[in-house]
Amino acid sequence: MKKTVIVCFISVLIGVLLTFSTVRAAGSDVVFEGSAKNFIDIRNSNCLFGNFNDLYPGIDLTRTLDIHDPSSRNAQIYIRARAVKSEYQPLLKQMSLYVLDESGRIISSTNDLSQKIFLCELEGGQEKSLKLRIHINSKMSDQLNSTYQKIEWIFSANEITDTSIAGIPKTNGNYNSVVYPVTVISLVSFLLTLILSERTRYL
């Protein structure tokens, strides 16, 4: 019985750790939190702005995002930036970020890249194409070379639950990404318990 409890505990722990993990592609400046990777496709690249070399003051750089919802879920998509080291923190203050729709119209902008910036809201099955543009402050005196290994661009997704289902409250958290893995792990743990119990009976 003690062995069974240990197995179940380890299974649940692994599930929880996977649920809250972040994913970073090799050689990329992009980090996906939770289930965000399921929604974001950086067109023709796994980098956002890190693979642009020779950045100079006053320059604008643009990257296209394809945002989709393959599992017919509803979600709000966000992005923020983070300096990899404290010495690069001033670099964030020298950049502005613009979000543009498919027609090139600016739909939002910010000078505070460390805060979550709303990109779009998806409803089941939707696909959207957005452009992200960063502008480097023209008053900067030094060449930037590259933002790679200096700045991380972090995507997150706030999945919206179906509030019409009785007993499930509306939440602003990443509800589906938490409940589904935990439910699966709980079922697996229950099955393992049954299997081990049956095995014990016949030993």
Short note summarizing the structure:
The chain is an alpha+beta fold and 203 residues long. 24% of the residues lie in helices and 33% in strands. It has three helices and ten strands; from the N terminus they run H-E-E-E-E-E-H-E-E-E-E-E-H.
Describe the protein in words:
It is a single chain. By secondary structure, the protein is of the alpha+beta class. The chain has a domain at 29-161: Jelly Rolls (Sandwich). Helices cover 24% and strands 33% of the residues. The chain contains three helices and ten strands; from the N terminus they run H-E-E-E-E-E-H-E-E-E-E-E-H. The strands form two sheets. A five-stranded mixed beta sheet has the order 1-2-10-5-8. Strands 3-4-9-6-7 form a five-stranded antiparallel beta sheet, with no helix packed on it. The radius of gyration is 22 Å and the shape is elongated. Residues 5-21 and 163-180 have low confidence and may be disordered.
Please name the CATH architecture of the domain at 29-161.
Sandwich
Low-confidence runs of at least 5 consecutive residues: 5-21, 163-180
- Structural class by secondary-structure content: alpha+beta
Distance between the termini: 13 Å
Helices and strands, in order, run as HEEEEEHEEEEEH
Largest sheet: 5 strands, mixed
- The count of helical stretches stands at 3
Overall outline: elongated
Top CATH class of the domain at 29-161: Mainly Beta
Strand order of the largest sheet: 1-2-10-5-8
> What percent strand?
25-35%
Mean pLDDT: 75
